[in-house]
């Protein structure tokens, strides 16, 4: 399964929306991983998400991601695994070994990878915020 990761140096980019460097990981038949470095210089998050979707990967492992790009990517069938941080090599080993659990490599301050509510403004009105 092809996986794409936004990078910042040797780490996962903390925010997909502003990332420009990406790594496309493709497992080969002999168990090795082929790495392809890509540049997506789009500044608009939606356009960037469209370009990421065009890569044909089945999953995206990223740090934070705003909801419009996440919605676009999931609507085309890509699995989005947000709130992941850390060194690229550690993320690759953890994800391809199947050990990327709810709490593994979680960004600091993130409660987890569960689906988060998208309409927070409606909650504010109920509570008078």
CATH architecture: 2-Layer Sandwich
Query: In sequence order, what are the helices and strands, one letter per element?
Result: EEEEHEHEHH
* CATH homologous superfamily annotation: Dinitrogenase iron-molybdenum cofactor biosynthesis domain
Note the main sheet.
Answer: 6 strands, mixed
Q: What is the structural class?
A: alpha/beta
Low-confidence stretches: 117-129
Shape type: globular
CATH class, named Alpha Beta
- What count of structural domains? 1
Strand content: 15-25%
- What's the number of helices? 4
Tally of strands: 6
What's the CATH topology label?
A: Nucleotidyltransferase, domain 5
Gyration radius, in Å: 15 Å
Summarize the structure.
By secondary structure, this protein is an alpha/beta fold. The protein has helices at 45-54, 67-75, 88-96, 120-127; strands spanning 3-8, 11-12, 21-27, 33-39, 59-61, 79-81. It has four helices and six strands.
Description:
This protein has 129 residues and is an alpha/beta fold. It has a single domain, classed as Dinitrogenase iron-molybdenum cofactor biosynthesis domain (Nucleotidyltransferase, domain 5). The chain is built from 4 helices and 6 strands. It has helices at 45-54, 67-75, 88-96, 120-127, and strands spanning 3-8, 11-12, 21-27, 33-39, 59-61, 79-81. Helix 1 (45-54) runs parallel beside helix 2. The longest helix is centred in the middle third of the chain and has 10 residues, at 45-54.
